[in-house]
Amino acid sequence: MSAEAPLSASAPPELRAGRAEENLLDCRRRLELLGQAAQAGWWDWDLVTGELDYSPEWKSQLGLAGDPLSHQISEWENRLHPEDHDRVMAEVKAGPAKASREPVLEFRLRHKNGSYRWMAFRGRIIRDAAGHPARLLGCQLDITDRKSLESRFQQTQKMESVGRLAGGVAHDFNNLLTIVLGYSDILLGSPAIVEPARDSLKEIKKAGERASALVRQLLAFTRKQPLEPAPLDLNVVVDDCEKLMKRLLGEDVEFVTCLAPELGRVKADISQTEQVLMNLALIAREAMPQGGKLTIETAAVSLGEAYCRTHAGVNPGRYILLAVSDTGIGMDESAIAQLFEPFSPAGQEGHGPGLGLAMISGFVKQCDGHVSVLSEPGQGSTFKIFLPEIEAGPVPDTQGPLAGWETILLAEDEDGVRSLTRQVLQSHGYTVLDAGRCEAALELAKNHPGSIHLLVSDIVMPGMSGQQLAGELAALHPGVRTLFISGYAEDTVLRYGVLAPGTAILKKPFTGDALPARVRQVLDQ
């Protein structure tokens, strides 16, 4: 836009007035263009007449472009969120009474569609020649997306805190459950225990195993378990998770299962599989705010060439189907298309957190499987997960020789677990040198005249860690092997760097048979 030559002082007054009006309009157009480019809306409140003037961008922010609006302050005030109203109006009205007042606020305004948009507002008081407040100019930016990201970040931090708490509680529970399960096995193996005491012991062990499964599911729900793919029966996984899923769903959701008998197996991590079920239950819960019905089905299916041609990345073959159906609000095709994207809008509107859905997609891909979604608005949704069926291999021999003659150095700071571990290993013929802390274990190793063949150590202990002890011991006794035991969650274990490939680890709680079997395996490698 070319600048016009200024008028001379001798120009007619009407010409000068016309030129001034043109310049004023030009400045206003420039301001509106600037507001559009910056996506900033402004309003001008005349404190003398009480009238408000809005910029086009201000109207666009609230979906009001082209709509007639009242120029009274009530038009703006009535759009304030009820929770923000008193705070904001007190600040705005207090502004003119204070010298050099420039209010800076964040609040919500009602959009034309009924939703509320977050605004970041900065104002300035304009005073007349006498110093009296004349106008309040305000500029605002729509920060709804930023607020949404902040909310998600805060929620993530909360979940991380919950995860850390769950990991700490799980460590203590796993130590206690190790003692319960270990001594149950010892007593059940004793011929001195007769009925009905034996039946009572079996019930104690069964309760301990259920408690162990519950701890594992809670850690899976907070994504704190190390991955260990193994053959799984999905029917068993659904049965184990049923009680926890019912608690997540609430009493107003009917829970139904339809599980195929004699189902084949898949290879997957049990913790991840349980987490997928929990996420799908939460997704269904959010899609049924007024209650409804959740159905879980399993079946053995074959996917042929025709199906695979219409589903990229799917290979023909035998699959185990896990289907989770709800009677909720459903989705349209556009929502389904972006459903598995992290933080997708579709994942936030009645179908759970976008990261939860992205996690499900990642899990299925890890297993070389396939996931599909069937849904229509108002007709509910069905998530179908196809995991490759694996061939039934020979049943592993768990009754091999568990006894030994080697010397084992044991480092465990939990007295009950250390006593149980020593007793189990000694009963299988091993010589055990035990200590409550790594420093004491290292002193035992320095003073021991013979060979030490294996270190069995907790990972996280006060002072020296199990990993540090293993390094020091290797210098004293070359060739010594190491088996770590831990009841901590994965994130804590990772900080100690012991999950490198080839590291032997036995997770608590372990049974009386699992410990000597793992010890024998490490010694015979």
Structural class of the helix and strand makeup?
alpha/beta
Unreliable stretches covering 5 or more consecutive residues = 343-354
The coarse overall form would be: elongated
CATH class of the largest domain: Alpha Beta
Number of separate helices: 16
The appropriate CATH architecture of the largest domain is: 2-Layer Sandwich
Compute the separation of the termini in Å: 83 Å
Structurally, the number of domains stands at 3
The overall average pLDDT, rounded, is 81
| CATH fold assignment of the largest domain | Heat Shock Protein 90
Largest sheet: 7 strands, mixed
CATH homology-level superfamily of the largest domain: Histidine kinase-like ATPase, C-terminal domain
Number of distinct beta strands: 17
Report the portion of residues in β strands.
15-25%
Give the proportion of residues in helices. Answer: 40-55%
The radius of gyration is: 34 Å
Give a description of the structure.
The strands form 3 sheets. Strands 6, 7, 8, 9, 10, 11 and 12 form a 7-stranded mixed beta sheet that branches. Strands 2-1-5-4-3 form a 5-stranded antiparallel beta sheet, sandwiched between helices. A 5-stranded parallel beta sheet has the order 14-13-15-16-17, with helices on both faces. The chain has helices spanning 13-38, 56-61, 73-77, 82-94, 144-188, 197-221, 234-249, 270-287, 305-309, 333-337, 354-366, 415-427, 438-447, 466-476, 490-494, 514-523, and strands at 40-46, 52-54, 104-110, 116-127, 133-142, 229-232, 253-259, 265-269, 292-303, 317-326, 370-375, 381-390, 407-411, 431-435, 454-458, 481-486, 505-507. It contains 16 helices and 17 strands. A hairpin with a 5-residue loop joins β1 (40-46) and β2. The chain is of the alpha/beta class and 525 residues long. It has 3 domains: 13-142, 2-Layer Sandwich (Beta-Lactamase), CATH 3.30.450; 227-392, Histidine kinase-like ATPase, C-terminal domain (Heat Shock Protein 90), CATH 3.30.565; 407-523, Rossmann fold (3-Layer(aba) Sandwich), CATH 3.40.50. α5 packs across α12. It is elongated and about 115 Å long. Residues 343-354 have low confidence and may be disordered.
